[in-house]
Write a structure and sequence with these properties.
Strand content: 15-25%
Number of strands: 16
């Protein structure tokens, strides 16, 4: 009995060993591979080259959301900007502050800059880095009132608000508050080496690979707590802007939006003066829709837009009212002033080029003057076809014509005619009225 029990016990032990090798070992391997995979998660990379506007804000927000969803090791924003809109800048900073994934702002490549709004974004990052040969600074707020200027009281209010905001950002990230205030109040700008000495940034890296090595092991404070960066040897994954944002970025250029608006006016006007052409109307409608869509991403001054519309009205009135060129000159002046005022620019990057405004104003004056002149002359021209075209037409009596009838010769054609007065054969006649296939005439 004892021997048999020992035998069964030995068999059970053997079976448990086999089960452990089949189940437990693969389970440990699975857990280990999962840990290894999470440790090797990608570093997401975004590239911003140009102004900070709603397009770049949406792109960065979307990238941060994606990095958090995919639990990325970090998110790097390669930044090169002259500045941009305050509202877009604040949206980006809010997204950075709410990110559980560390956000690294890297002013790159050599020759790039982080100016104006770019200073705020760089200082708000969990890690701020710059490439050699780059600069940061000049964050003084620019006037965006009527004509791009603000009164002294408003300038002081906006400046104080910007100073308080950048100081709070610098304090949160442990960066130089005094320099941050100078960047806003005095528009100071420094090189990458000076920024590192002044504790404006955390490090200088020559390229993305160098950056990954230098930030590896660095501990930062995110919304979810302290996070230790593990970026050495981790693969990078670039996040594309996407077709919609690329198109919006192109048409978001103020010069492109301005051209689209003018082409839209041209197309619709040509369609109205030549009904049935179809293509100009469709083309003009598409251009106008794209123009007004891009206006959503730009600081539009609607007083400037109204002045441009007024200039078009003045060009049209020049054809109907004899002003000896006064209305045309007024239209050109109105268009130039309206174009200069069209965008409430916080910097030169949202201003229209004078090399575009002046030719556009002259071309618009010429277009509307010539087009409307031809259309107006065509409208006043007497119809030459159909029954309406016969009215007032002169001809010759082919036979005697009276109330009973007769025959008349008009443009080489014979017509049945009648008249309230007797008309002799060979006399000149003039058409008074058309009744079906008969004409009423009188002596010409």
């Amino acid at each position: 009995y004892f021997k048999w029990n020992y035998f069964y016990f030995f068999v059970i032990i053997k079976m448990m060993k086999k089960l452990s090798s089949i189940i437990i070992v693969p389970l440990f391997l699975l857990i280990f591979s999962t840990v290894s995979f999470s440790a090797k998660s990608s570093v997401y990379v975004l590239t911003i080259q140009g102004v900070i506007n709603p397009v770049s804000a949406e792109y960065i927000q979307r990238g941060i959301d994606l990095a958090n969803t995919e639990r990325a090791s970090a998110l790097v924003i390669e930044l090169d900007t002259p500045g941009g809109l305050d509202t877009s800048m604040r949206k980006i900073i809010k997204s950075i502050n709410q990110s559980a994934v560390p956000v690294v702002v890297y002013v790159f490549p050599s020759g790039a800059r982080a100016a104006s709004a770019g200073v705020f974004i760089t200082m708000a990052a969990h890690v701020a880095a710059m490439a050699p040969g780059t600069n940061i600074g000049a964050a003084h707020p620019v006037g965006i009132g009527i004509g791009g200027k603000m009164d002294k009281t408003m300038v002081e209010k906006v400046t104080n608000d910007a100073v308080a905001y950048i100081k709070s950002i610098a304090e949160r990230r442990g960066r130089n508050k005094k320099w941050a205030e100078k960047a806003v109040r005095k528009s100071v700008s420094v090189t990458a080496r000076e920024a590192l000495k002044l504790r404006v940034i955390d490090l200088i890296a020559k390229d993305l690979d160098d950056l990954m090595k230098k930030i590896d092991g660095k501990t930062v404070e995110t919304v979810s707590g302290k996070v230790k960066l593990k970026t050495r040897g981790v693969p990078t994954k670039r996040v594309p802007m996407g077709l919609r944002l690329k198109i919006l970025s192109i048409i978001g250029n103020p010069n492109v939006a301005y051209i689209l608006m003018l082409l839209g006016f041209y197309g619709l006007f040509f369609e109205l003066t030549n009904p049935g052409a179809i293509f100009p109307g469709v083309f003009g409608a598409i251009c106008l829709i794209l123009a007004f869509y891009s206006f959503q991403t730009l600081p539009v001054n609607y007083a400037g837009l109204l002045l441009i519309i007024l200039s078009i009205i003045l060009f049209v009135l020049e054809i109907k009212i004899t002003s000896h060129g006064v209305l045309t000159i007024g239209g050109i002046v109105s268009m130039v002033i309206g174009s200069l005022m069209l965008f409430k620019s916080p910097g030169p990057f949202f201003k229209l080029s004078l090399y575009l405004i002046l030719p556009a104003a002259l071309a618009t004056a010429l277009f509307f003057t010539v087009t409307f002149s031809l259309a107006f002359k065509a409208w006043r021209r007497k119809p030459v076809t159909g029954s309406v075209g016969l009215l007032g037409l002169e001809g010759v009596a082919h036979t005697d014509i009276d109330k009973e009838g007769g025959m008349a010769l008009l443009r080489g054609e014979y017509w049945q005619a009648f008249s309230d007065e007797p008309i002799k054969k060979g006399e000149k006649i003039k058409v008074q009225e058309v009744k079906g296939l008969k004409i009423k005439v009188k002596r010409g």
